[in-house]
Each structure stands twice: as structure tokens, then as C-alpha cells.
Amino acid sequence: LMHSMVSEATRQLRIDDAFANADADSDGRLCRGDVKVAWIELFGYKPCRRELDLIMQSQPAVAGPTDEFVTLDTFRRLASARMSRLDADGQLRHAFAALDSGGRNFLRAEDLRRAVGLLAPRLAAGGFAVDRAFAEVDADADGRVTYRDFEFAMKFDPDQQ
User: Fold this and answer.
1) Residue 6 has what pLDDT?
2) pTM here?
3) Which of 61, 105, 140, 148 is the most exposed place for a label (fewest CB within 10 A)?
């Protein structure tokens, strides 16, 4: 819990710093060009026109100039959501790499059995549940689970089907 609080505080500081660094005229809001600069600082890439349009359209309407801009609150919300998605993807890549002990870029049923044997020996004892789970994730039944198969299974939400 403490780690997640520190991570969230660090995330907010990074976002606030990127916003301040990009706010060229220090008016507390970012124009399209400023958003590009802040996005590059945070994520290492320039947002495409479509992504930039979505960012700019996320700003609630306010009375005043009709120029497009993004306030700190809106920027915080959007950048934090983007960082959360990146963090989750990083955790998936890390988990996949930990299971892929052979560094083959795919998992075999033996890899899953080994991991489950270490983490949940009672579940691994029968083996049937592990083999069935592997078969569910192995979409093309080739005996290999690629990262794409793994990612799909980990992000699968049966309530959205």
C-alpha cells in the first residue's frame, strides 16, 4: 500500500513537472503545441494528430477564449490514465518473462506447471487444472502460448463479451 502511494505521488509530480515545463507562457494551460511537448517528456513520443485531437477534446467547455487548451486537472487525468495502462502492460511483460524461463518468447505447458508448482503446490499436484488452463490460453493449440495469447487471456473480461 505504501509503495502504491509513493508511486502515485511520484507519478503526479512527473505529470505536474511535464505540464509546468511545457506551459511556455505560464498561464496554467497548454495549447496543442505545449501538449505535444509535455507528452514527449512523459512518454517519449509525439502524439499523433488523432490522439492529440482526443486530448484537446477532453477539456470541459469553459466560458472564455475559444482557443483549444488543456488545464492541469485535465492533463493530470489523461496522463495518469495513460501511465496506468503502461504500468499494467509492463507488469504483464514482466510476468510473461518470469514464466518464460527459457527465453524462447513463448510459454509451454511445462513452464506453467513449474510456476504453479512453486506458487500453489496443491493445485499443481493433479496437473489437470493447469493443463486445462494452458489449453484455454493456447488459442491455436500448437503447444505454445505467445505473449499475444498471454496478454489476451490476462486482459479478458467475460462480462464484456
Assistant:
1) 53
2) 0.55
3) 61
